[in-house]
UniProtKB/TrEMBL annotation:
GO terms for cellular component: plasma membrane. The keyword Ribosomal protein does not apply. The chain crosses the membrane at residues 7-28, 34-55, 62-83, 89-106. GO terms for molecular function: transmembrane transporter activity. Gene3D superfamilies: 1.10.3730.20. The keyword DNA-binding does not apply. This is Uncharacterized protein. It is found in: Cell membrane. It is a multi-pass membrane protein. Keywords: Cell membrane, Membrane, Transmembrane, Transmembrane helix, Transport.
Length: 133
């Protein structure tokens, strides 16, 4: 599991940068505010790099599910706190279902925790190199 920690840290950075990038995107006012526009682009680039690093090893269904679920929930909550947006009962229920889905994805992946995904990834890369020689 220690080997996997760096990939989950990268996933956390991807989530945070996506949330901040989305908030910056709103503040860019349709790309009319230069610094907020540049901030959103930079944060999205960081997010893409970190997410691509994560999915090299973490199963795509888990990484993408956690990334989208956490990003959606925290962005919605920050929208309420920062921009004074409101959430309907249906939206709150939807966010709760997203949280349950993310928890289910992570729980289903716990049985695979012993699998050395990093070693498998290296082995896959080696096999791909052999195919193209």
């Amino acid at each position: 599991m220690k080997l996997m920690a760096k990939y989950y840290v990268a996933l956390a950075v991807a989530i945070v940068s996506e949330i901040l990038g989305t908030l910056s995107l709103k503040l860019s006012a349709g790309f009319t505010q230069l610094w907020w526009t540049l901030a959103s682009i930079g944060l999205y680039l960081i997010m893409l790099y970190c997410l691509s690093y994560t999915i090299r090893v973490v199963p795509l269904s888990v990484a993408y599910g956690v990334w989208t679920g956490a990003g959606t929930v925290f962005t919605a909550l920050l929208g309420v706190m920062v921009f004074h947006e409101t959430l309907s009962i249906g939206q709150i229920a939807g966010l709760a279902l997203l949280v349950l889905g993310v928890v289910a994805l992570n729980r289903s992946g716990e049985s695979e925790e012993e699998t050395e995904y990093e070693a498998l990834q290296i082995e896959d890369e080696f096999q791909m190199d052999e195919k193209f020689r």
